[in-house]
Amino acid sequence: MLEDEVLREVDKGRLLPLMEEFYTIQGEGFHKGTAAYFIRVGGCDVGCHWCDVKESWNAATHPPTPVEAIVENAAKYSNTIVVTGGEPLTWNMKPLTDALKAKNLQIHIETSGAYPLTGTWDWICLSPKKNKLPHKEVYDRAHELKVIVYNRHDLIFAEQEAAKVNDDCILYLQPEWSVRDKVTPLIVDYVMQHPKWKVSLQTHKYLNIP
Asked: Which residues form the Radical SAM core domain (predicted)?
């Protein structure tokens, strides 16, 4: 396939810059402990300094992969598919989710909401970032809000973001892994004082799994 044609197919979402795909246990948020197949899509310009998958940022380093091939692999492993990144909404997600839905799979997305919502989703985990705030539709449709806490000011940001989501959205505070010993007690105290929030931990890292 010629380079220009590849770029057109990527723009349409028929090819996606696939960083990795793997079957594991969801470690975070509402569905923690659930077996799921993860599709990690490359490309992100949000630029969180503490990001633990910075190798996902440059989409050009990840091979443009046909959606059909991604779906064929995913369907072998699990009924629950988690699309993550990078920032998956950088790309048109409709071809991927249409193909996954044709297999009757449950589809979740983990997103900063920094780009318009595309695709059909059974569960939307919104993890907003200060550098590039979410689009309104993502706030409106999010099933869970997961705010990463790196310092005390992030609790103020969390409340600002919680005011924007729908009334049914579940609210989580999650310690950033590199400072977890410092901020976890802060989060615990905050949740006890503000019980509309729940604590989310990266349990997959404690279990030493992907």
From this structure: 31-210
Q: Which residues participate in the annotated binding site for [4Fe-4S] cluster?
A: 44, 48, 51
The SS3 of residue 210 is: coil
* Bind-site residues for substrate: 25-27, 40, 84, 210
pLDDT 10s digits, 159-197: 999 999 999 999 999 999 999 999 999 999 999 999 999
Q: How is the chain split among helix, strand and coil, in percent rounded to 5?
A: 35, 25, 40
Query: Largest Cα–Cα distance of the chain, in whole Å?
Result: 58
pLDDT per residue as tens digits for the range 148-158:
999 999 999 99
The mean pLDDT of 70-86, rounded to a whole number, is 96
Distance CA 104, CA 80 (A): 10
The whole-angstrom separation of Cα 131 and Cα 72 is: 35
Cα 18 to Cα 189: distance, rounded to the nearest angstrom: 39
Closest CA to 144 of 3, 31, 45, 44: 31
Among residues 79, 69, 74, the alpha carbon closest in space to that of 106 is found at 79
Classify domain 3-206 at the CATH topology level.
Answer: TIM Barrel (3.20.20)
| Residue of 119, 114, 62, 126 lying closest to 96 (CA atoms) | 119
